[in-house]
Amino acid sequence: MGETLNGAIDLDIDCEKKLSERTLSDLKARDLPDKTIRQMMKDLGNQRAKLYGWPNTYVFTKAMGEMFVAQLRGNLPVVIMRPTIVCSTIKEPFPGWVEGVRTIDSVAVTYGKGSLSFFPAGRYSVLDLIPADMFVNSMIVAMKAHINQASLTIYQVGSSYRNPVTFNELHDFHFRYFTKNPWSNRQGIPVKIGKGLVLSNLMIFQVILYMFHVMVKTMLMFVTRMGCYKLQHILYNLDKKLQVATKLVDLYKPYLFFKGIFVDTNTQRLIETARENGLDEDVFNFDPLSINWNDYFVNVHLPSIVKYLYMYSHIFAMVISSHLGLSSQT
Hints:
Family: Belongs to the fatty acyl-CoA reductase family.
Keywords: Lipid biosynthesis, Lipid metabolism, Membrane, NADP, Oxidoreductase, Transmembrane, Transmembrane helix
Helix content: 55-70%
Mean pLDDT: 84
Function: Catalyzes the reduction of fatty acyl-CoA to fatty alcohols.
Strand content: 5-15%
Low-confidence stretches: none
Number of strands: 6
Domain Fatty acyl-CoA reductase C-terminal: 212-309
Distance between the termini: 60 Å
Catalytic activity: a long-chain fatty acyl-CoA + 2 NADPH + 2 H(+) = a long-chain primary fatty alcohol + 2 NADP(+) + CoA
């Protein structure tokens, strides 16, 4: 309770709670728009998180949640499961099951569409991943193992320690998959992708982004004075995209250049104990050593992401067509 990542000052959760409530109350009293209030509260959360050493509000509040659980559990048997990036299933209910496109998949799809030619990341940074069904299996086995044990146990459920996959390897998997199975654009023409430039130096990437931003702003001012409204609209949209890109870089920076490895000693012990007690690994497997990352990405994960997006786009087109009274072919 109260321990922080940077060790600079102790964390008082009650004070943080009062600060957020007081700030929200003051903002509402000023009769500000809801959108402005939401943004200011987000900014406050990120400021408080970084004060204690966490990169954003999301992980900061998760840490506070764990502190509360540890403090209030009494004699209850409590297990805290910490999954890393949860990706599509490797086996159950079927290989590649996924809901939506998130985190690394949004980058993968943008790359496959040919819209991403360079991106920032440490080439040898390890992306800590775990398929969704393997994480579910770990929860089920952990619950069974800790029945009637009045203790608190924390499990890191990931792959970075015993079966790491680097960003460089992921980049190679994606390049080979989309080269062999190219994405088709709206005209049905296959999209040819390049290897892509990986910028391991974040400062260089930010300078390039800044230069693009300044160039677009300058051109926008010029065409506005000239009255070129069509070009003005295009440049305005490009400027908005650059602003979003800047925010995304800031958001993902702590993960794309992360140097840490999460040791999963407790999870490894759980696997060994479960095996000794007759674990059916065909049903309840959660050992990251069993994952072949090349096979998983090329034959399971990426095909599922692409299929999901095509299906979603087709359904969306059908819904729009029905509302507009158009034929399905149209």
